Structure formats: structure tokens, C-alpha cells
Amino acid sequence: MIRRQLHFGLNVLSAGMHPAAWLAKESDPLGYIKPEQWLRLVQVAEKGTLDAIFLADEPGLNLAADGTLPGPSWAALDPLVLLSSLASISTYIGLAATVSTTYEEPYNVARRFASLDHVSRGRAAWNVVTTVDATVAGNFGTSPHPPREERYARAAEFVEVARALWDSWDDNAHVADKATKQFSAPGAIRRINYRGKYFRVDGPLNVPRPPQGHPVLMQAGGSPSGLDLAARYADVVFAAQASLQDALAYTKDLRRRIEAYGRPPDSILVMPGLSFVLGGTEAEAQARNTELNELAGEQRREWLAWQISVEPDALEWDKPLPDWLLSTNEAAAGAQGARDIVLNLARRERLTVRQLLDRVITWHRLVVGSPEQLADAITEWFLAGAVDGFNIMPDVEPSGAEAFVEHVVPILRRRGLFRHEYEGTMLRDHLGLARPDEEPCNTLKYQPVTDIALNNDR
Asked: Which of 126, 413, 420, 438 is buried most deeply by CB count within 10 Å?
């Protein structure tokens, strides 16, 4: 019997997950645009045999009221361009990029991810998102930001088109015979002739089928619509949960939805975000966390307010969330799943704003402690069956990633829960995911998703 093994992605958000990461003494505020910092992160990730490096992204930038940028948290290089460059200086680490289905076109995205999979020899992953920030619409013309259900319906059709395009080439399409002057096999490259509500795409793709068949598909899966999108298409769910109780309920719900779509319930890896502040001892970690919190000041409360779609003035540091917020059933203006995580925790434990911020950073679970304590926290959720691993989100980059690899990974290896070396070269190898079979276009299973209603009420 093969024992389950943990999986880890390294989620890199500019200077780190903490709002004050860029102010930390060891941090380079401009490191996120410097090749040497990315090289260092890739080397650390591969040393720790992590599965992938994960880049969040949003196609816009919100400034403070005075027109300034309060930090580098959402400033970012284009993830696909950056990961393509990292492919040449790495051998094993998976390369996961966030790309929105709301403000892109499926042909371009399918082509870029197929290209990344080729140049990385099979290490590409696409984090499928729908973009919650309505202000982004102003960067893409005059159309208003679509409502949530429309964004998810478009996303489902978008993924269908991308998968069809990846399958528009057979694996053995190339002949490349100089003697006969035959480059491709007859009938091995075909149009997809997709006709849906949102997209009309002829195909074929102008890039051969990716080495992985399809790049690994990731999805956040927070709201009911997001859960359904993940259950239907994802290989990995980058979930966000703040408590073991909620994580167990989430995974149970997701597995049920997966089965409803005719997929094996364990066909998706559940890897929520895990923020942490490490110290040699718990006291050292708490002191480091206090120092970062003091550097961040009011920005911590502003981040929480943004997360739960309220004004910062509605939150008082040492009081619980307002009753009207705890009792609301109204949909969030932003990410519904992100707000629900905080509200569920606040309702259950009646935490103050300050206490909430000691448990959650940007809607992800927060652990402050020693390497042994972090390893214990990871082990508890994993052995309980709530998760298959985590997307780790260090407080400060790259020092936090180095601390995790140097001090936490060895503990998990000694416990027999994490690999000592890579067993393959492709991301699907690392994650234990099967390679999708070819779907010849003349018998293509893909169809317009408008013919298959998304069911968000299961």
C-alpha cells in the first residue's frame, strides 16, 4: 500500500504574504522585479522538492486615495512571461500562473499555456480565475464588469474551448520526415469548430499538444459557482480555509460535487493556502509577528475590510464584527468564498477584529510558531483527510520559503509524509495526476457549456 504524501506549492506574492513584508529588514522592496530573487526562490523550491511555484495575478492595480501604492503586494510581472523565463533555469519545479477567463480569449490562453508546457518540458499549470474586482473592467474597454454567475458560465465555456484546442493535435501528429518531405500525419491536426454562447473558435491550435496532454488546471473553488467549476474541471483546488472544521466540510462538499460530474471523488487535490510566521521557538515567532504587525499598522485592518467588502471604519480592533455583518445573507461585492471564511470563523468563535487577524491573513489560515508547531499543524489537517497538501504563503519572501525548506520540510520527511526527491520531471508526476487521453476532434467530447447547466444548489 502506497502511503499518502503531502503536496506543496509555493505561493509567491511580491514581497510576501504579510502586509508589511516589504518593510521587513531582510526584504528587498523591489525584489519582485529582479531576476536574481526569482532564481533564488526557484532554487529553494527545488531544494525542498516542492511541487510548484504559484503566481497569483490580477489585471489591474488599485491605488490609495492619495494616488500612491501602499506596497508591492498586487504589483506584478506578467506571470506567464516570468514563468517562461524560470523554465530555463529550473528542472523540476511546476510553474503555475493565474490567468483570468473574464478578460482574456481562450485561443490566446490555450496557446500560451501549451507553449509554457513545451518550454518547461511538462511543468505548466493554469490557475483559472474569473476576476472579482469590478474596477479591472476599465482596463479592457467600456463593457461593465460581468455579474458573478455570468463570469463563471463564461469561465466554464472558456475551459472547454482551451481543452478542445489542446486536443486539436494528436500526440503523434509530427512525422517530420525529411526523406518524404512529410511534416505531419494526415488527419492528426483538426479544427474544433466550437460554437457556444460566449465563444466561436475554429481552431486548430498552432502549438502541438502539450507534453502533459493538458497543463494542470487549478481553481480556487470558494463560492458555490467556484466549487462547481472546480469539481467539473480542476486537477488542484487552491482552497482557502481557516479552521479544520470548515476544511473538512469543504472537502466533503467538493468530493460530492466531483462525483456528481462523473469524476472519481479523489481526482482533485485539495491544497488550501497556509500563511505562516516562523521562529526558532514559539516566542521568537510571536515576536517576529508582533514586529511585522506593528510595521503594517492600519493596513492590516484595511486588508480585512477589503476581504469582507466593508469600509475600514466599520471595524474596531478589539470588538467583534458588527452584528449586521454577522447576520447578513447578502452576496459579497468581492470574493464570496473569501468573505465566508472570515464570517464563519467570527460567528462560531465571536472573535474580535484583532483576534481574527491573528488567525487569518487575506482569508488564508495563519500559523505563528516554531518549525515543529508548523509541521504539527500541517500534519493534523493532512491526517484528518481535510487536505492533500498546502500552498504555502510565507510572511516574507524569499527568507520565509528558505526557513520552511530548511526547518519544516526535514520534519515532515522524518515523519514519512513528504518526498525526499522527485520521482519524475513533469508536474503531473509530482502531483500523482494521470495524463489526459487524447480526444480526437471527430469524436470530441467537448460541447458548449450552455447545453450543460451549472448546478450551484447541490
From this structure: 126
Q: Is residue 236 within a helix (H) or strand (E), and if so which, with residue range?
A: strand 236-237
> What are the grid coordinates assigned to 386, written together?
481535510
Task: Calculate ∠ Cα 175-179-183, nearest 5°.
Answer: 25
Cell numbers found for residue 17: 504574504
Give the chain's length: 458
Kindly calculate the radius of gyration of the chain based on its CA atoms and give it in whole angstroms.
Answer: 22
In this structure, what C-alpha cell is assigned to residue 104?
482574456
Question: Which residues sit opposite 128 in a β-bridge?
Answer: 99, 219
Q: Taking Cα atoms as reference points, which of 123, 111, 101, 121 lies closest to residue 45?
A: 123
For 396-445, write each residue's pLDDT tens digit.
999 999 999 999 999 999 999 999 999 999 999 999 999 998 765 444 45
Please check whether residue 217 is in contact with residue 233, taking contact to mean a CB–CB distance below 8 angstroms: yes
Q: Are the CB atoms for 53 and 41 separated by under 8 Å?
A: yes
Domains of the chain, by residue range, sit at 7-450
Instruction: Give ∠ CA 302-305-310 in degrees, rounded to 5.
Output: 135
Q: What are phi and psi of 28, to 5 degrees?
A: -100, 110
Beta strands in 26-178 (DSSP E): 52-55, 94-100, 124-129, 174-177
DSSP 453: -
322 pLDDT more than 90: no
Q: What residues are paired with 391 via a beta bridge?
A: 9, 273
Neighbouring residues of 327: CB distance < 8 A, sequence distance ≥ 6: none
Query: Using CA of residue 293, residue 295, residue 298, residue 300, what is the dihedral sign?
Result: negative
For 200, list phi and psi in degrees, rounded to 5: -125, 110
State the CATH class of domain 7-450: alpha beta
All three cell numbers of 436, joined, read 489526459
The arithmetic mean of pLDDT across residues 380-397, rounded, is 97
- What three-state secondary structure class fits 194? strand
CA angle 318-322-323, nearest 5°?
130
Other Cβ atoms less than 10 A from the Cβ of 451: the count is 8
Q: Is the pLDDT of residue 280 over 80?
A: yes
Q: Are 254 and 231 in contact (CB under 8 A)?
A: yes
- pTM comes to 0.91
CA terminus-to-terminus distance, the chain: 34
CB atoms within 10 A of CB 320: 18
Q: Which three cell numbers stand for residue 310?
A: 466593508
208-243 pLDDT per residue, tens = 999 999 999 999 877 788 899 999 999 999 988 888
52 phi/psi in degrees, rounded to 5? -155, 160
Distance of CA 282 to the CA centre of its chain: 29
List of residues 6+ apart from 448 with CB closer than 8 A? 157, 160, 194, 195, 196, 197
